[in-house]
Structure formats: structure tokens, C-alpha cells
Amino acid sequence: MPSVQIRSSPVTVTDLKQRVIACLNRLSDRDTLSLAAAELESIALNLSPETFSLFINCLQNTDSSAKSPVRKHCVSLLSVLSRSHGDSLAPHLSKMVTTILRRLRDPDSSVRAACTAASVDMTTSITGSPFSTLSGPLIETLIHDCDPNAQIGAAVCLAAAIDAAEEPDVEQLQKALPKIGKLLKSEGFKAKPELLGAIGSVIGAVGGRNSDKAVLDWLLPNVLEFLSSDDWHARKAAAEAMARVAMAEQELAPLYKKACVGIMESRRFDKVKLVRETMNRTLSLWKQLEGDDSTEISESSSSSKSASSGSSATSRQRSNTLKGKDKNIKAPISSKLNDVEEKRNHSTLGAKRVLFPAKPKPKPRDAQSSDEENLEARSSSSQRKNAEELSLIRNQISLIEKQQSNLFDLFQRLMESSQNGMQSLERRVRGLETNLSVISTDLIVTRTITQQNGGNHKRNACLQN
């Protein structure tokens, strides 16, 4: 009896391995694809814990030169395993993650989409292992892999896993955020839109728990810079990331409200409709935040990469000096105080002339009120100009949209007329074929009758002789 048991177990494992490999090979043929896929799913559903490792090894060892349906289905089977067996797969989660990492370089986007779905299924179904078992390798791949397809796949998988996780590893994500954010400035990292999506997911998971203002101080200007990118996918992803910041950072986001709203206001009329809609939703979220900002974000740093760091540092020092000396100075007078500071070596009378110019014996309050009135007039005129420009932009956008809809209608009519022409041509061809068949039949009948008549004439001639 013991010898029989020893023989039966290896035979069963071997048969299972051969069956799985045979099914994987049949995935390459279109005629047997559906049957092989159904059989593999049936095998995955009925696996025992002792055969998990064997089945995963077969999926992992599939050659990368195999056809796209084979590569895609090998990843999709990980989703089937996760949903059907759950925490029983916890000891094998690292091997499953390795299988996904091998497919992230795949040039076929459908294979990478299967990797994303598998990452979500493993996150939601296999909760017995820590979240870092899945997120850690994805973060390492995102940071160190130079292949563009791997960068896209790692960023999308990481974002999907974080969004699907009930309890992501906040401490791990908080430590990884500065490293991931530095990739925005890296020329070797090509998948910037997908990276912005991953950054938004990390901020959404970390926000409100151990948030760090120093991180947002350098991260937000880098994200805002992509609002003026040439790639509309990057502009849309940046707007979505800013929406994540507004929703997650309830305590720190109001510090940046004024600067961020000002920059997004200038970008709200994007030429791409999806970007416009996303930007307006994000802008409304930021406007709903309570409180004024005390942190300055220069718009030039988000729209131009060639700004001088020395001049920005000097301007910050000057503004900090003014704030420390007198916090109650109003905004219309603060610009003139800068001129006064540059002429400190002059007399008090010269300083007064700078502050209150150009009127015979003016009173300080009168000068201040006149300055305020002038500034208010200038601001109102600039607001009117901005309103006029915005209305022109809106009219141009509506005109472009109408032209696009007209072109689309024209294209539809052209397609319909083309289809009608093709149908009439097909009817004419079928009519010609029918006429040809009739003519050929008539010719055959005529030829047969002629031959029969010729034979009868010969018989009659012979009989007469």
C-alpha cells in the first residue's frame, strides 16, 4: 500500500503539469483558443493548495515570445486564482507578483491591462499578506526600470492597487512619495501621465495621516507644471492629481489655495474637452476649501523651466522682511514700501515724497485713499479686459465645437452616401451576374439544339441514299 501511494502522487502532479502546458500551447491557435481558455479556468478553479505552486510555475515559465493571447491569458488566470481561492494563496503572493512584473514590459497594452486587473484582484482577495508584498516590487520597478512599457505598467498597476486596497501601507507610501515625485523631473522617465495618476493615488492614501508639508512644497509646483504640458493626457492627469490633493489634504491644502486656484483659473479653457471638464471639477474642489493661503507658489515655476532660482530666493527674502516689520500694511502700500527701503539713506522728507507724491501739501490719508482708488480703477479695468478676453475665448471654443459637430455630420452623410453607392453597385453586379448566367444558359441550349439538328440531317441523308 505505501508503494502505491508514492507512485500515484507524482503521476497526478505530472498529469496536471502536462495538461496545463498542453492547454497553454492550444491558446496560440484561434480554433482551439476558447476551449483551451475554458479548460484552464476550470483547472484554476479546482486546484488544491498543494498544486498552487505548480500551476503558478507553469504560468510564470511561459516564454515571452509566445503569442499575445497566451501572454494575456497567463496573467488573467492569476485573477481567476485570486478571486476563487483568496487567502489560501497568501504564501504564493510573491511568486504571483513576480509573474506580473515579467509582463509589465509587454508591448501589447491588453497584456498590461490584464496585469492591472490582476493587481486589483490580488489586493482585494488576498488580504492575508501585507499590502507591501504587492506595492513594494511595483514601486521598485517604477523607480528603477528604464523601459517605457514597464514604467507605464508599473504606474498603472500601483495606482489601481492603492485605490483598491482597504488598508494600504501608509508609512511605505509616505516614504516612497518623494522618490516617485522626483521622476517627474527625470528625462529618462517617459510615462509622465501614468506617473501623475500614481502620485495622485499615493496622496489620496497618505493624505490626512502623517502628511508632510515639506513634500507638498516641492511636489505641487512640479504637478502644476504639467497643466501646461503639450500632452493632453498629462494635463488631465495633473488636474486629477490636484483634485486628489484637495480632497485628501484637508489641513494643508488651504495653505496653497490662492496660488493653486490662480494657476488653474488660467488653464480652465483647455482645447480638449476632457481636460476642460476635469480642470473645472478640480477648480471647484479647490474653491470649496476654507481658509487663505500662506504659502506662495510661483506660476512661472509651473509654466517655465528656465526661471532663475536666485531671483525667486531674493523675492521671498524681501517679502518675508516686509511681513516681519509690519503685518498690518495694506497691499496697495506694500509695493511702495519696497521703493522706500531702497532709499533708506535719504532723509525722512525724501521717504515721505516717495510714499505720498505729486500733490501740494497732501495729507497721508488723502494720498493713501487716492492710491487705493487708482489701484481699484486699474484692477477694475483689468478685470473688464479679462472678462472680455474670456468671453472671446468662450465664443471661439463654441465656434470650434460647432465646426467639429458640422464636420462630424458631414462625415456621417458622406459615409451614408458611400454605403448607398456600394449597395447600388452590389445590386448592379448581381444583376449582371444573373444576366450572364441566363445568356450562358441560352447559348448552351442553342448549341445543343444545333448539334441535334445537324445529327438529324445526317441521318436523313443516309436513309435517302
UniProtKB/TrEMBL annotation:
Residues 415-442 form a coiled coil. Residues 15-288 form the TORTIFOLIA1/SINE1-2 N-terminal domain. Residues 290-388 are annotated as: Disordered. Signal peptide: none annotated. Keywords: Coiled coil. Residues 297-319 have a biased composition (Low complexity). One of its GO terms (molecular function) is microtubule binding. PANTHER family: MICROTUBULE-ASSOCIATED PROTEIN TORTIFOLIA1, TORTIFOLIA1-LIKE PROTEIN 5. SUPFAM superfamilies: ARM repeat. The keyword Coiled coil applies. The lineage of its organism: Eukaryota, Viridiplantae, Streptophyta, Embryophyta, Tracheophyta. This is TORTIFOLIA1/SINE1-2 N-terminal domain-containing protein. GO terms for cellular component: microtubule. InterPro entries: ARM-like (IPR011989), ARM-type_fold (IPR016024), TORTIFOLIA1/SINE1-2 (IPR033337), TORTIFOLIA1/SINE1-2_N (IPR057600). The keyword S-adenosyl-L-methionine does not apply.
